[in-house]
Amino acid sequence: MKAIIMAGGKGTRLRPLTCAKPKPMVPLANYPVMTHTINLLKKHGFSDIGVTVQHMASHIIDYYRDGREMGVNIRYFIEDIPLGTAGSVKNAQDFLNDTFLVISGDGLTDINLSEAMECHRQKKSLATLILTSVENPLEYGIVVTKNTGEIVRFLEKPTWGEVFSDKVNTGMYILEPEVLNYIPEKSFFDFSKNLFPLLMDKGYTLNGFNGKGYWCDIGNSQAYLQAHLDILMDKVSTYLPYREYSSKIWVGDNTEIHPLAQLKAPLVIGNNCYIGPHASIGPHSFIGDNCRIMEGTSVKRSVLWNGVSIDKDVALRGAVLCSNVSIKSRTAVYEGAIIGDETVVHEKCIIKPGAKVWPGKTIEEGTVFKDNLVWGVKFSRNLFGFNGIKGQLNVDLYLDQILRVGSAFGSVINLPGKVGLSSDETPIARTVKQVLASGLQVVGQQVYDLGNLTVPIFRFAVRNGNLDGGLYVQFSHRDNNIQICFLNNEGANISKGQEKKLENILAIDDFSFVPNVKVKDIITLDNIYDIYFLTLKRQVHKNINLKAAFNCPSRRLNDSVVKLLIDLGCQIEEVNEEEVRSKVINGDLDLGIYLDSQGEKLILIDERGNVLEGDQLKVLLAYLLFNEINNSTLVAPIDAPSVLEELAEKYQGKIIRTKSALQSRMENMLKQGKYGEKQFYLEFDGLQALVEILKTLCLKKLKLSQLISELPVFYLHRETVKCPWEVKGTIIRSLIEKFSQDNYSNTIEGVKFKHPEGWILILPDLEKPLVNIISESKSMEIAKEITNVFKDRIQQIMGI
After folding, report:
1. Which pLDDT score, from 0 to 100, does residue 162 have?
2. What are phi and psi of 532, to 5 degrees?
3. CB 106 within 8 A of CB 9
4. In angstroms, rounded to a whole number, what is the distance separating the alpha carbons of residues 319 and 345?
5. Of 221, 450, 469, 706, which shows the fewest CB atoms inside 10 Å?
6. pLDDT band at 765 (very low <50, low <70, confident <90, very high)
7. Which residues pair with 286 in a beta bridge?
8. Alpha-carbon span 419 to 461, nearest angstrom
9. Separation CA 432–CA 396 (nearest Å)
10. Three-state secondary structure along 194-246?
11. % of the chain at pLDDT higher than 90
12. Element housing 734 (H / E)
């Protein structure tokens, strides 16, 4: 049987392990990762193997040659340019004249490929995807299948909000040769993103095989260390080529172990090694060939490649030392640290957890080397949350990390560019802004300090000031967190793709530094606030003769808004937040207004004391936009009320549903032209929304309650359920499996279920270990009942 090993990847996230070799050649249990893949193929009868290569191809070709030494036949197919997963296999089409298997050359698995092949043949499938279940599916393609195994839905590398299953695509496929005809020649083409959706669109059935056994995509250093641990814990069946020196301790040929050395199982030591007196090795360690570990050194949970030399009294804890590293005496290397090839670490150094040292470096005596990629707990899953990066200073975020974030953002923006910076008025936010400015400057960006603004005013400034991007910093007294918001040239949040690119730059320190003479001074612009309010004032062409109670926690914003409203003809009574409603009810006022300190959140109280906020405010703004022009197209997130579609139908308009993420909503709004831009401002600027509503009340000579009465009635209930991160996918999959295909609908995010009295959306939270439950019905009582039914089911799935 024939198989294709995809071995063209660079392994960027594994650096510095992959600085000098391609990812398939990284040692795993003292052999290249791809060797384990070849052994698995050979075990299941795949003897004719094609290997697609591109990055550092000669390393792979020179090592395996024609495959005879491993008892297989190997042919190589070289990509001159990256062709993607499917494009690289297309490159081998002449070799693939029968059913074949596609497998990655840089993962570890013992899934039964023979059973997968038999399943494929029994179902006479065109394509079978080998699947497995994982706790955290964010880095993989998630898949939902029917009980028959037919694939009904999949999505590549989702956010938590998009997770609808814990079954993931392993990147192993059994294919018929005909599928190659759907892959274009010499073009970048991906299996999951391009080919499989194309086949499903053409009506072909794709099947999933649920692989039992071990599977690990060795995508980062944590997974790399975990794979070694799993091998020693017998979680995966693989080959160890050494004799068993004692129980669970394997030792290679010509290795000398001093009688006073301590070896602790499980442990692997390679060929031609020396272990000195009183050295303590293990447990859960791999020592490569030709290593020397001297007297008094302690090694635990670590991986040493070939040729490593360690002097006396060194401590290694959960570290990876690449080829020919030399560690001098009384040095300590801690959890997750990686020392690159040919590096020398001199005496009495401390290499702190998570540090990464690139190849060929020298670390001088007594150095305390700490990695500036040691993110706090909140960033262990994703650096970016719902609205940028958030964390406590000196707990989750350190100033050196913030400096690098500035440089990474500056490296994503086209050079030379113009980047705006702003913050709220707190000293800590202004401090973080200054650090970000330095990071931007050293990569050659022209930095404009726009002073202390609100987020909506900063969006306005970036969009109208012809800037290439912006960074905004705010501090929350409620949770003590700093938040950094990243904007593109349109004043919207940067895309998920840009977030990933920025994360990758941070992971490998790939900054676009410029020579010192290219660093530019910061330019200060201090009139943005005045320009914004002048622009707002010019939008109103008629006096707004209304009386209102008003509150805003920010003194500066409060004073500016009060002046604007008075200039527009309003009579304003400033009150405390808790007094707004009572003043409206008991006084001779038309409405009450609350604006938060950032000017983003708007709450209105009509003359009867009814509160307008959240979903109802969104519906009102949509109503105003549809009224302004028929046939317009508006954007709404997946969890917004369905009455928006009723409004659209009434005014011959259209609603485009998007993911709940801010950038998805913003990006789609700004694609809709003039009225999309207006919706963008109304939804993300509370003051713009307020002015628009006041203009409408004045123009139509209506009370706010009368305007609200023109809106369709809806009842939307929202609730959250706490759940561990690792079971989010399981919850969604289990709920889908409980319902027939007719009871749930595929959505762009989460999963939506039909109900005789309405609908319910289950949406994993993007930032917290929560699942959001959103239901809509004919009454709030029924909406709550629907929510409780699904809440109980979710808790049952979790065993609560």
Report:
1. 61
2. -60, -50
3. yes
4. 14
5. 706
6. confident
7. 268, 303
8. 11
9. 13
10. HHHHHHHHCCCCEEEEECCCCEEECCCHHHHHHHHHHHHCCCCCCCCCCEEEE
11. 57
12. helix 728-738
**Helix, coil or strand: residue 670:** helix
pTM comes to: 0.65
* Mean pLDDT score, 769-785: 91
661-690: pLDDT as tens digits: 899 999 999 999 888 999 999 999 999 999
What is the token pair recorded at 728?
A: 């989010």
Q: Could you tell me if 687 and 561 are in contact, meaning their C-beta atoms sit under 8 angstroms apart?
A: yes
Contacts of 177 (CB under 8 A, 6+ apart): 93, 96, 97, 98, 99, 100
Check residue 432 and give its pLDDT: 97
What mean pLDDT is predicted for residues 260-279? Answer: 94
Poorest-confidence range of 117-131, 628-642, 734-748, 754-768?
734-748
Q: What is the DSSP string of 461-500?
A: HHHHTT-SEEEEEEEETTTTEEEEEEE-TTSSBPPHHHHH
Q: Which residue carries 């022209």 as its tokens? A: 446
Strands 744-745 and 715-722 turn out to be unpaired
Q: Rounded distance, CA 408 to CA 162, Å?
A: 27
Distance of CA 217 to the CA centre of its chain: 17
Q: What is the pLDDT of residue 373?
A: 32
pLDDT value for 165: 64
Work out the angle at residue 460's Cα, subtended by the Cα atoms of residues 457 and 461, and round it to the nearest 5 degrees.
Answer: 90
Closest CA to 140 of 250, 51, 219, 235: 219
Q: How far apart are CA 334 and CA 350, in angstroms?
A: 8
Reported residue count of the chain is 800
Sort strands 141-145 and 362-363 into parallel, antiparallel or unpaired: unpaired
Of 205-209, 260-264, 374-378, minimum mean pLDDT range = 374-378
Closest CA to 634 of 599, 604, 673, 603: 673
Residue 2 C-beta-side C-alpha neighbours within 13 Å: 17
**pLDDT tens, position by position, 171-189:** 899 999 999 999 998 888 9
How does residue 437 score in pLDDT terms, banded at 50, 70 and 90? very high
Count of alpha carbons within 13 angstroms of residue 797, beta-carbon side: 24
Report how far Cα 736 is from the mean position of its chain's Cα atoms.
24
Query: What is the rounded distance in angstroms from the CA atom of residue 85 to the CA atom of residue 167?
Result: 20
Give the span between the Cα atoms of 626 and 521, in whole angstroms: 46
CA distance 121 to 553: 68
What does residue 792 show for φ and ψ, rounded to 5 degrees? -65, -40
- CA distances to 88, 277, 332, 386, 444 from 409, rounded to whole Å, are 32, 51, 33, 17, 12
Per-residue pLDDT of 492-518, as tens digits, reads 999 988 998 898 888 777 889 999 999
